[in-house]
């Protein structure tokens, strides 16, 4: 009987060094139009990023503010861009079901990463 020589990866640790105190997740419906208003350019709206339809409040992170490295994701469901590690505007869209297993895993890792750092404020509707 041959022994398995496969490599098993250690579980990834997505816990932040200083875990934030997060509110219980909310399931408020958020339209695509409302999400688009939450792109960090209007002080009367928070800054949101959605992944797989789950909307996160990222307002406290300047990386998602105008001029920030990840502002491209603000006000959008950036699932596809996160899955394929892209900062291209055309990739910031919610479609991801056609991606391969590797990209799906990357996307799920991002969902876990965000859920441990940012409040979930709702779900994209429509």
Features:
126 residues; alpha+beta; four-stranded mixed β-sheet; globular; disordered N terminus
The portion of residues assigned to helices is: 10-25%
Q: What string gives the helices and strands in order?
A: EHEEHHE
Strand order of the largest sheet: 1-4-3-2
Q: Which stretches of 5+ consecutive residues score pLDDT under 50?
A: 1-11
Share of β-strand residues? 5-15%
Number of helices: 3
Q: Which structural class should the secondary elements be placed in?
A: alpha+beta
Radius of gyration: 16 Å
Count of distinct strands: 4
Report on the biggest sheet.
4 strands, mixed
Shape: globular
Q: Mean pLDDT score, rounded?
A: 90
Structure description:
The protein has 126 residues and is of the alpha+beta class. It is 21% helix and 14% strand. The chain is built from 3 helices and 4 strands; from the N terminus they run βαββααβ. Strands 1-4-3-2 form a 4-stranded mixed beta sheet. A hairpin with a 2-residue loop joins β2 (48-51) and β3. The chain starts with 28 loop residues before the first strand and ends with a strand. Residues 1-11 have low confidence and may be disordered.
């Amino acid at each position: 009987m041959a022994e398995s020589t496969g490599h098993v990866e250690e579980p990834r640790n997505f816990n932040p060094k200083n875990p934030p105190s997060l509110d219980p997740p909310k399931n408020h419906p958020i339209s695509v139009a409302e999400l688009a208003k939450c792109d960090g350019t209007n002080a009367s709206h928070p800054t949101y990023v959605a992944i797989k339809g789950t909307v996160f409040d990222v307002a406290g992170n300047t990386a998602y503010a105008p001029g920030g490295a990840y502002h491209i994701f603000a006000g959008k469901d950036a699932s596809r861009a996160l899955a394929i590690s892209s900062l291209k505007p055309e990739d910031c869209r919610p479609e991801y079901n056609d991606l391969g297993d590797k990209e799906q895993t990357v996307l799920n890792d991002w969902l876990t990463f965000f859920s441990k750092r940012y409040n979930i404020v709702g779900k994209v509707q429509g």
